[in-house]
Known about the structure:
By secondary structure, the protein is an alpha/beta fold. It contains 23 helices and five strands. The protein has a five-stranded parallel beta sheet with strand order 3-2-1-4-5, sandwiched between helices.
Amino acid sequence: MFVPTAEPGAVPAGQEPPDTGERHRLTAVTGLAALSLDAMASVAYGPEAIVLVLAAAGAHGLGYTLPVTLAIAALLAVLVASYRQVIAAFPDGGGSYAVARAHLGARTSLVAAASLVLDYVLNVAVAVTAGVAALTSAFPALYPHRLWLCLAVLALVTGVNLRGIVESAKAFIVPTVVFVGSVFVLIVVGLLRSSPASMATAAGHASVLADNASSVGALLLLKAFASGCAALTGVEAIANAVPSFRAPRAKRAQHAEVALGAVLGAMLIGLSVLISRFHLQPVEGVTVLAQLADASLGHNWGFYVIQFATMILLALSANTSFGGLPVLLELLARDNYLPHVFALKADRQVHRHGVLALAVVSAALLVFSGGDTNTLVPLFAIGVFVGFTIAQVGMVRHWRLERGPGWRGKALLNGFGAVLTGVATVVVTAGKFAEGAWLVVLMLPLLVGAFVAVHRAYGRIGDRLGLGRIPEAPHRERSVVIVPVSSLTRLTSQALSAAASLGDEVRAVTVCHPDPEDRARLHALERAWAEWDPGVPLVRLACERRTLGRPIAAYVREVTAAEPATQVTVLIPETEPERLWQRLLQNQRGAVVAHAVRRETDAVICRLRFRLS
């Protein structure tokens, strides 16, 4: 009996080979730096979003800042616990898309994917604009140049991510530590103060606090909750990018998720306590975090450290999208919902096409918004809450089907999370609909429609190719190779030699126009051809119009019609210039012929490159 043996270097089942690109993957610490900057940096605009809404009820309304923040922190805890379960159940990544694809059907999974795509793109734009806003709060003279600053930061983050996700994580560890450490120092020092150290930052700026307002209704609190939920974006990024972690991937990703929830929750609650303690009011042109730094640390070097750390981390928090979205696009491409080019990886585990696509769309969004954060924030967080809800519902079904140890408790947790995030989705959408959220609601079905259209196109291609079916046995056919020529050169000789090795019969063709100059050129070519006598006939193709590709395509159709059992190949000889810029000197005749033949016939096209170097 034959027993297969392992080849040299083979690895036992269930184990990874010693070098599988693991050094280009994330640890729990680098994963926290690469995939959670969005969530970390949201403390710069999450509490501010709450305060801006509550300011409509005057000073009395600002007193509800902490209760609203505690509600958001509770939702954060549920989401972190739930996404730990998502990571364990779906270690191949994809987050809510993977959960929905497995348990809720294709259409629901596409809604989840579309919501995540929108959220990731908006995250880049919001992160960059918020980072630049922190910079212009400290240096108002830069405010008129905010769009160019935004585009420069986007180019920097894109360049770092093209080097690989591990390289980006290493580059962002120090800014992350500085920012988180600075915020906790701000909170601790602020809690030790009985009164603000300085209010210089807000001096001279108009307050946005409403006058003569004292009542706080449920609708206002819900709107404040909806705005503050922007701080929860990015919680799902780690679950989406589990394959980017080193083995054991699920464990490392879970550790990173828990660390993210703990740090983010502590920062949100701490900052909200200080807002209430110092009775801060939102003012035009200065962020709430800048006022907190001023009140806790004073208007000194500590204040500027906070501002620079905030600016850097906010700008770099776009990296969360660059780490999560390309992985999601890869999964969509593998499932035939996006062009397959998004599934390709370059060196260092880089999804280059996904990174570049995200950069281009984000740049367009920045130009559209003019680099203004307030234009983009109303669009933010809706998509991610749709994904949150779908993921929770899908996990409930997952535990009911699996019925492993403790499945009831796990399903209850996910069900509770689904109710909370579902309510939050409705509240966020309703609260921000008139401010621009309608655009996200419109884009979701359009994106789903685009995914479906791509999938149908791949389905038709698969049917034509016979994917999944055993094809008929290959057989040899008589072949004719047609070579377009215009003069006698070494290129012509090489082309005919290559054609002779490809087919049973070779025919050279040349196009002739009625102009006297062209006729003279044709007669000269025919005389030279007869003198050269390569053993290949030269066929004259007369054409009244000044065109090159159509006469050749028409001749190919004639040959195919006359000899239906013959395989026709068009071999197009071209020169390959020594320098890249010398391509501008070429007449592009080969491209014209190839385009016409490809569009009008089913002939095989072969382009022969003659290197000039």
